[in-house]
Amino acid sequence: MCRLLGRAGLAALLAGGSLGLVATADFANPAQARAATKPPVQQAQPNVVVILVDDLGWPDVSSYGRSDVPTPNIDRIAKSGVAFSSGYVAASVCAVSRAGLLTGRMPASFGFTYNINDEGNEGAGLPLAEKTLAERLKPLGYRSAAIGKWHQGSARQFYPTNRGFDEFFGFLAGETVYVDPATPGIVTTPTKADANKPPFTQRRGNGVIVEGPDARSVANFDKYLTTEITDRAVDFIDRSAGKPFFAYVAYNAPHWPLQVPQAYYDRFAHIKDPVRRTYVAMIAAMDDGVGKILDTLERKGVRDDTIIVFLSDNGCPEQFGFCNPDHPWSWGKFTYLEGGIRVPFLFSWPRRLKPGGIVDTPVSSMDIVPTVLKAAQPKAPLPKGLDGQDLLASAQHPPRTPRMLIWGQEPVFAVRQGPLKLWRSQDWNQTHLYDLDNDPAERTDLSGTQAEARERLERVMEDWRAKLPKPLWPLHTTRKVVVDGRETEWVY
């Protein structure tokens, strides 16, 4: 059973102690993996690789210690940098979270409040007035590629190559089929929620794989999409090394539907539940892809000068039945419990950051944009309006004043400062206050005993809420759900 560990225990685990950290030869000895690579040549501007995965729960990597999911290649990123144990995303649902990462701004502050349907809410997409990281890096000489899941609007004006990226390969919707289930050697596992989903027999609408500025269709339904995303990322790095580049590698794994090559499924015969087993096998396939990306950076001699960030877009969705049942942060997508917004979050930049193990300082996906811009142009002021902070500083120096983090999709909001977290439902007219240090599962409401802290965080939340613009498209639905024994509100 997974359990929460203190800071010392987490640090010991990442260092490879006896509490169960999974390791491979590459993870244990990164220098050995570089033995036959080109010698590194220092660049004036770092390369950037952001690896964003989909619906991956906090405990479903081995970077934080004891886990039934071995991720030796993801762990290589942690081993060469830091693993943020309090890494958050901007929202608990895919499209909204991605808007925060790509812009460095809180999505609700520019009306990107709710998720985008797979066939597209009419006119929904990342507003053109909001610059993506690719758009900001282009005038600095960077070449950029978006590879994998987009989910920032399907209309032409929102297409990746019209948002600063030089290349795109992937799909525009929030989900798609990985491979034709009739392909030999593929395991397709139904879940308890599949009755409400379309069949696996084809890719539809915005789930079709496209590439290039003209969005031409790619005939690859017989190839496993996770492998295809990896291969495209490797090809882009191979072609781009030598000049600064930005690779936004957005795997849709391990998002539904559950499909994986038999060879990965066979690795996990000890997992008796076929749904959980397939999910874990999908993570293993994605982890191997991360390894190939790291190997390519090392082979090209650019690993030391490459910023790598690995994170999930939100937590694991409870409704499919594949989340880890033994950890309070293992599920919660669509909610503002910790399991919805606290995600695996790893950061590495060998040229500038020494390995630091587990870092508890809270960070946000919105920190990626200011981190990269400061690294690419150290003497230039950051653009106005960014909501993030420098990940490098967070990894090296704990802040003197606890950071204030805020989230909100009307009618549900949350605020965290230090160990205290306030959760608020406007339509339920309920407010809960939690101490995450002593109550990481968010089971004990302290509102009645810490009224001053509750009122202070409520004022922060209400002041922020009052400044928000009207959402650009409507809320889909809310729902009362029970997550790990806790009643909460689900926003979609």
Automatic annotation (TrEMBL):
Assigned keywords, A-Z:
Calcium, Hydrolase, Metal-binding, Signal
Q: Where is the signal peptide?
A: 1-28
PROSITE patterns, per database record: SULFATASE_2
Q: Which GO terms describe its molecular function?
A: arylsulfatase activity; metal ion binding
Residues folding into a coiled coil are none
Domain of life, per UniProt, equals Bacteria
Residue ranges of the Sulfatase N-terminal domain? 46-376
The record's section on Pfam families has: Sulfatase
- Hey, which family's this protein in? Belongs to the sulfatase family.
Tell me the protein's name. Answer: Sulfatase-like hydrolase/transferase
Q: Which organism is it from?
A: Sphingobium nicotianae
